[in-house]
Every structure is written in C-alpha cells, then in structure tokens.
Amino acid sequence: MSPRWELNPNIRRxxxxxxxxxxxxxxxxxxxxxPFTDEILQRCEEVMRDVCADFNTELVEFNGESDHVHLLVxxxxxxxxxxLVGSLKGVSARRLRQxxxxxxxxxxxxxxxxxPSYFAASCGGAPLEIxxxxxxxxxxxx
Length: 142
Known about the structure:
Layout: H1 4-7, E1 12-13, E2 18-19, E3 21-27, H2 38-54, E4 58-65, E5 68-75, H3 81-99, H4 101-107, E6 119-123, H5 128-136
Antiparallel strand pairs: 1-2, 3-5, 3-6, 4-5
C-alpha cells in the first residue's frame, strides 16, 4: 500500500522534501482606491499566473473586487513568500500601468500601484488543534 501522501494530488515531492504549502494573499492598491474593473482583474490574474509559473508555484485561485485582490498560492519550500509577493506586486503593477494607463491614472498617481503592505496566511491541511493533539500523542517509548 502506498503512503497516504502519494494519494493526495496537493502533496508534492522534491528530491529531499514532501510538502503541501498554501498561502492566502490579499493585496490592496495604494490608498485603497478602486482601480479594478473586470477586464483589469482578468489581466491581473493572467500576469500573476505567469509570475507564479516563473517561481515554480501554482496560482490555485484568484479573485478580487474594485479595491483588492485575493490569491491562493501553492508553493514549494524553497520559495521565500516575501520574494514571491514582491514579484507578483512589481510585475503586475508595471504591466497594468503599461496596458491600462489612462484608467489607472484616474485612481492612482505617482509611481505606486500597490500598498506596500499585504495580508498572508498559511492555509490548508488539518486545523491547528488537530496537529497539536497529534504531536502531543507522539510519545517516546520508555
């Protein structure tokens, strides 16, 4: 019988690691202004999918409203989440400003597109209480 992790498609293997790391990210534009239309959100998702592919990560889910976007990213342990976020925000800001200059200028001015802050939460897998209970039950033999 195969180990349980081999049956779960969300669990990935590297040469020396077995992992499933997911992060929920939320980005807001500078001053929480609302520059996003359906067309801009669609293009933002395409750009962010390309950036994720460059980092060997997967953009599992993307959605947004006029003043923020949500991402669910599946990433390997070798990826520093802060570097991924920097690239996602930097590349998307540059591309969206190039492709929608007049619209973006109505909402944002100067060189900034995204707020410098962001929300990140690890997610997926068992709830923390279950993991704590599992670890507590891993008693060493006497």
